[in-house]
Amino acid sequence: MHPNARRSQACLLQYRDRRQLPILPTTKCTAPTSDPPHESTETPLETTDDASADAAAMCVENCVLKAQLAALRDHDGERNRHLTSLQTELAALRARSIALEAELRVLRHLVRRTPMHGSL
Question: How many distinct structural domains can be found in the chain?
Fold first, then answer.
């Protein structure tokens, strides 16, 4: 196995283990090479040709980058949902604050209108 292919395979396996993502058994490789797209599998990539090894490494790195992008999009969506929830909660707190301020004004008005007991 070419060192680049071995390093890329190790990188993909490490990323899969770290993120607990499954490696699909068969995916299309669309690395920019003179060769037509080919099948890549999770078995070690056996090659002696440097260009093929570099293309295989690019395929693996592309898969890793796509997985990272998908994870970032999921994380971004989760953050957006959390932000929306916080904005809703803030709006509810503002409405409650307005209601409490109105109630306080009413109570202050009642206190001013109520005569003091025990005054002579």
Answer: 1
Query: From the centroid of its chain, how far is CA 100?
Result: 39
117 part of a folded domain: no
CA 6/CA 105 separation, integer angstroms: 74
CB 51 within 8 A of CB 31: no
Task: Report which secondary-structure segment, H or E, holds 23.
Answer: none
Backbone angles phi, psi at 43, to 5 degrees: -75, 155
Q: pLDDT tens across 66-82, in order? A: 888 888 888 999 999 99
Eight-state DSSP code of residue 20 = T
Q: Which domain covers residue 10, as residue numbers? A: 3-112
pTM over 0.85: no
* pLDDT for position 83: 94
